[in-house]
Amino acid sequence: MPPTPCALCHTSRALIIRPKNNQKLCKACFLALFEAEIHNTITSNSLFSPGERIAIGASGGKDSTVLASVLKTLNERYNYGLDLLLLSIDEGIKGYRDDSLETVKRNATQYDMPLSIVGYDELYGWTMDQVVSQIGKKGNCTYCGVFRRQALDRGAARLGIKHVVTGHNADDVAETVMMNLLRGDLPRLSRATSIVTASAASDIKRSKPLKYAYEKEIVLYAHHKRLDYFSTECIYSPEAFRGSARTLIKNLERVRPSAILDVVRSGEDMARLVPAEVSNSNQPLANTTDAAVAADEEAEGEAGCGSANGRASGGEMAAMEQKLRNEEKATGKETDFTLQGQRHDRCKPPSTTAKKLPKQHLQRCVRCGYLSSQPVCKACMLLEGLNKNRPKTEIGVSVSVEERY
């Protein structure tokens, strides 16, 4: 059987089957198409302005590493005129974050980007190792998610940067949409689909250039570009509600490859139907208001660890990476497959009873000054609970000279 030609160039041999649409492509065409789609996302949403300083939230994982590589490539190719640098958060997790930061340091050298590292210990007086030793592994992502979001904002503010980009991909957005649908959280659903989170009361905005990129395609891009990234899962990653949403999304993807983008697009369409008094926004979909930013800061654990490695269930992405390495060794072989599934058009009629949703009001935290929908922000509330249980003084036992012998 002759080799399958690339669906785009029709000359080179197809080596890659795109998870998004099962299109068979050669390596060069896949890499070019991936970069072109990210460029289209950036330009169609007007994410950047010439001369803008951009901080890339770098964890050392595949998402942030691919984001840094692609932005550097596109910035040079299309002359965006951006000043790019890496901003990393050190949560204080020995055996995980310390190793991943070594990867980030290598990336900074490889991409010729300045690197700034901000630590939990420096900002909050606690490392995640200390937090877990105090509260256990259950619920630790609540602390880490809230602390991490504030740390990114504060790190950017120190550097005088007003725009932070993160490596959230289509899988992440689809999971968040599904979580908010299952919880019936309409206001947060409208914010979760925004590619840009901007606030009139804050100088720092966030954007997600990889919003429409599949996680599996990010792995493929990193593999074929030979990118240097860290692929170990967070040692404190729990089985949380997001894990259930991820399993549901992955099951849908198996029977319908376009399911991930379908969920994202559906979430965007539903977000447009959210009344302004509910979403606290009179602005276009691409922006959210101050109260929305504050509410997102208080989302328990949704900010995650900044790396999809920590959110992947069962080491699925690690297994995919190993499969790619094994396939490279078996040159001349090609695996083709066809996905079959069913489509169910049945649905329940919408409820006629309107749910009254609380309206959130923006204010500054009375302790740290961070944006919050409450007088005391979530981070300060969590720190108060931790500090109450921390021993004020060390307990020691004195031993006399005579007792030593």
Characterise the protein shown here.
The protein has 405 residues and is α/β, with parallel strands linked by helices. It is 44% helix and 8% strand. The protein contains 15 helices and 10 strands. It has a 6-stranded mixed sheet. A two-stranded antiparallel sheet has the order 1-2. Helix 2 (62-77) crosses helix 9 (215-224), helix 7 (170-183) runs antiparallel to helix 8 and helix 7 (170-183) packs across helix 11 (259-272). It is globular. The model is unreliable at 281-304, 306-314 and 393-405 (pLDDT under 50).
In short:
This protein is of the alpha/beta class and 405 residues long. It is 44% helix and 8% strand. The chain has helices at 27-44, 62-77, 97-110, 120-124, 128-135, 140-159, 170-183, 186-192, 215-224, 241-255, 259-272, 276-279, 290-297, 316-329, 378-389; strands spanning 16-17, 24-25, 53-57, 83-90, 115-119, 163-165, 196-197, 205-207, 363-364, 371-372.
